[in-house]
Amino acid sequence: xxxxxxxxxxxxxxWKRKLFTFISDNPLVARVQYxxxxxxxxxxxxxVDSVNRVYRVQLELAAAGKTxxxxxxxxxxxxxxxxxxxxxxxxxxxxxxxxxTLFLSLILNRSYVMILDILRLEEENKRLKxxxxxSTRSSEKLDHAGDMGEIGRLRxxxxxxxxDIATLKKQSEGLSREYNDLGDRxxxxxxxxxxxx
Length: 197
Prior knowledge:
Largest sheet: none
Oligomer: single chain
Structural class: mainly alpha
Order of helices and strands: HHHHHH
Shape: flat
Radius of gyration: 33 Å
Number of strands: 0
């Protein structure tokens, strides 16, 4: 809640820009974000488990109600029914807690991305208007914010190297084609065998 409020509280533009560049550049914050992603994966697993439990308890409660109404089976005693109701309550509670946690994490992530986009657009707007303060080092950091720091840099480097490899492949194909053409032309001029030369 505190993190969400710190993201949406109205602040001067420079403060907010510094806060977001700190969040996106700090390696400690990147590690915390990575740990939170792992926690949210576990919460997702708990959510799926709680959905299954709610379904099973609901089926068990319906089966107990049918045997009690048909009269052929034993009537559900109060303590047994209370146990089923308690399990239903706990499974529904876990379902709501994990579901709301996942939903709020989605809202928090989306808010962070939207605020970063707004800050980038404001920076671009200032740059296009010709503000000399807009082309500073912090604006460049803001352009790369949200790239996960080292991971984003490595991805860009991999993309650059892939482009280099593709260019080298095209050059080598062209060179081999030219070599083959030159070899065909030279062999076409020499019609006699090598022994005769």
